[in-house]
Write a structure and sequence with these properties.
The protein is 47% helix and 12% strand. β3, α3 (86-99) and β4 (103-106) form a beta-alpha-beta unit. It has helices at residues 25-38, 57-71, 86-99, 116-128, 141-144, 150-156, 173-182, 196-201, 216-227, 231-249, 255-267, 286-301; strands at 9-11, 42-45, 76-80, 103-106, 134-139, 162-167, 187-190, 206-209. It is of the alpha/beta class. It has twelve helices and eight strands.
């Protein structure tokens, strides 16, 4: 397993819609090229930031197809394929392998809290549908409602395709726990954007984050400073990122609606709004959105 292709900043790709709320292939390709030009290591497609739970199987295939049209062979692509049933998840996994992604990823099934052996069976069946593709476990207990346990990870490590964890739990010690179980040929990604510097310091090979797409330069610099041993500088930059995140989250509109608007203001790329029931921006949000865009501009000038 080539660790190097996973050892960087990997933005979680945002859903791209047209004015009618349908998937917009042109925007997908434009945004993919934009992020490649920013110097990111890869893209994480079809996850939370991609509003996957509000999209059909066919829509999710369409998104990945247009990402791969631009990104294949240029950067690492990880496709999140989990649905809340095994059949659809396996269909997306098989499609992702045909598209030539580097890895697939999956959260556990949500709503019903399944035991470890059932979660492992679900993940292994998905993996079997893409037998030649790396598999990454997505641990996000605050949203999935169930956490990856050491025992479950030990079960999953029996599958040779399981090469890592995207860890979005808040305790950074989980990174060390999963690394210890996974061994030398295993990778753990930091998930919570607010603690990238800490997660890297605890052994994360890179980061996959929902706010990376709106300010990739900042996160790339945090990783550079951390890798160079400049922990104080990395921490100061992390604090800047966290201030921006807090400001973006203060809007009434959903965070992804805020970030898409910022990208439109700063980069001229239109990604549309967010899909209901996520709340779109309201008029009261616009001054804060402009403020956040300026905050990002000011920080990037200092890099």
């Amino acid at each position: 397993m080539n660790k190097e292709k996973y050892s960087g900043i990997i933005p979680a790709f945002y859903a791209c819609y047209d004015k009618s709320g349908n998937i917009n292939p042109e925007s997908i390709e434009q945004f993919t090229l934009h992020l490649i030009n920013k110097g990111v290591q890869g893209l994480y497609v079809g996850g939370s930031s991609g509003e996957c739970i509000y999209q059909s199987v066919e829509e999710r295939k369409l998104v990945l197809e247009h990402v791969m049209k631009i990104a294949k062979g240029k950067i690492t692509v990880i496709a999140h394929v989990a649905c809340n049933n095994t059949k659809d998840s396996c269909e997306l996994a098989s499609h992702a392998e045909k598209m030539g992604v580097d890895a697939i990823a999956a959260i556990p099934p949500i709503y019903f809290h399944l035991p470890d052996h059932a979660i492992a069976a679900y993940w292994n069946e998905i993996s079997a549908s893409a037998p030649n593709t790396d598999f990454i476990i997505y641990n996000i207990p605050q949203l999935a409602g169930v956490a990856l346990t050491p025992d479950c990870l030990k079960i999953m490590r029996k599958n040779p395709r399981v090469i890592g964890v995207k860890n979005s739990s808040m305790p950074t010690m989980d990174i060390q726990t999963f690394m210890a179980i996974g061994g030398e040929d295993f990778v753990v990604f930091n998930g919570p954007d607010e603690q990238l510097a800490a997660g890297l310091s605890m052994g994360a090979v890179g980061g996959i984050g929902g706010t990376y797409g709106v300010m990739p330069e900042l996160y790339i610099k945090i990783k550079e400073e951390t890798n160079g041993g400049n922990i104080k500088k990395a921490s100061l930059l992390q604090a800047k990122a966290n201030d921006i995140i807090a400001a973006m989250c203060s809007c009434k509109g959903n965070l992804y609606a805020v970030m898409k608007k910022i990208i439109h203001l700063r980069e001229g790329i239109s990604l549309g709004g967010v899909r209901s029931p996520l709340p779109n921006l309201c008029d009261d949000d616009l001054p804060t959105v402009v403020k956040c865009a300026k905050m990002i501009d000011e920080v990037i000038k200092l890099l």
